[in-house]
Specification:
By secondary structure, this protein is mainly beta. It has three domains: 5-105, Roll (SH3 type barrels), CATH 2.30.30; 112-175, SH3 type barrels; 184-303, endopeptidase domain like (from Nostoc punctiforme) (endopeptidase fold (from Nostoc punctiforme)). 13% of the residues lie in helices and 37% in strands. The protein has a seven-stranded antiparallel sheet with strand order 10-9-13-12-11-8-14, with no helix packed on it. Strands 17-22-18-19-20-21 form a six-stranded antiparallel sheet. Helix 3 packs across helix 4. Keywords: Hydrolase, Protease, Thiol protease. GO terms for molecular function: cysteine-type peptidase activity. This is NlpC/P60 family protein. Belongs to the peptidase C40 family.
């Protein structure tokens, strides 16, 4: 598969679809630029959300400024791969289709390792670009041009922008410290911030997560890369026995009483509890382990934090 262009996402959250025919009329708000993700989700019923998975419509999402590789164009659509979302589906990154209007030319400038980035730490943050205001999601990353006492000036796909200093942190990749050995608990603590957030199939933003997107983003919040999907996440990392579980470990569930295909993942929260994003009719919630409909489907646990659990991505 050849790469036609390197581009970046130019909307707050770009939905990546299975095909150009996948979106329905009721998904129009998510296809615009600017996209209205909040308005789109607010208008979806539970059956509407279920249909995203039942008919295999939505694959994943990508945040504002994320680099993507364009591998094909078809009318107003582009087939992309997302390098930072690793997957067994495609060696270039997570694949799918997105409206071309939601892409912008990739900025050419200082290499990532030599430029600080602003990473959104608020669940949602306001970016101001001229007279335009965008609501960005958690962990959106943008290159920094200047920092003041109360603001961060950033380079964006739309031009120079400004973030509130209290809604983001500065990350300097040239001076990043290794992940602390006991970083697992902070993964669970970050996850707890999203208690009550509605589930979204394919969701990878603080507007709505699916189960593996939730695990992926909570690890990303600690600087730990893991694969995008639960089935791939279950193949990497360090396998952990039940009696050795610690907060931040990932718990996997499979069909056929744990012997079949992996279909769900949650984050161990300690004290025999798990926090997860369950399904289209639910919200992020904390439950007792080995109770409810998942009780007989637990198959294994994995650890990506700490020594011996590194995953290169």
């Amino acid at each position: 598969m050849s790469v036609l262009a390197r581009m970046q996402i130019s909307v707050a959250v770009g939905c990546v679809w299975t095909s150009p025919e996948s979106p329905r009329a009721l998904d129009e708000a998510a296809l615009r630029n600017p996209a209205d993700i909040g308005g789109w989700l607010g208008g979806l019923t539970v059956p509407d959300k279920l249909n995203l998975s039942d008919d295999n419509r939505l694959q994943t999402q990508a945040l504002f400024g994320t680099e993507v590789l364009v591998t094909e164009e078809w009318g107003d659509w582009a087939h992309i791969c997302i390098p930072e979302q690793t997957t067994s589906k495609n060696g270039l990154g997570y694949p799918g289709w997105i409206p071309r209007r939601q892409l912008a030319e990739l900025q050419v400038g200082t290499a990532r390792a030599e430029r600080a980035e602003a990473e959104i730490t608020a669940k949602r943050a306001t970016l101001t670009v001229g007279r335009t205001k965008l609501t960005l999601g958690y962990l959106t990353r943008l290159r920094v041009s200047e920092v003041t006492a109360d603001s961060i000036r950033v380079d964006t796909p739309l031009g120079a922008g400004v973030l509130d200093r209290n809604e983001a942190r500065i990350k300097s990749f040239a001076n990043d410290d290794p992940v602390p050995v006991h970083e697992g608990r902070s993964i669970a603590e970050q996850a707890a911030r999203f208690d009550g957030l509605p589930y979204l199939w394919g969701g990878l933003s603080s507007f709505g997560f699916d189960c593996s997107g939730f695990a992926y983003m909570m690890h990303r919040s600690r600087g730990i890369p893991i694969p995008r999907d639960a089935s791939d996440q279950a193949l990497e990392g360090e396998t952990i026995a039940r009696e050795r579980l610690e907060p931040g470990d990932l718990l996997f569930f499979a069909a056929e009483e744990g012997e079949g295909r992996v279909h769900h993942v949650g984050i161990y929260a300690g004290d025999n509890r798990m926090i997860h994003s369950p399904d289209s009719g639910s919200v992020v919630t904390t439950v007792r382990l080995y109770e409810g409909k998942l009780a007989n489907e637990f198959c294994l646990a994995k650890r990506y934090w700490g020594r011996g659990a590194a995953y290169a991505g």
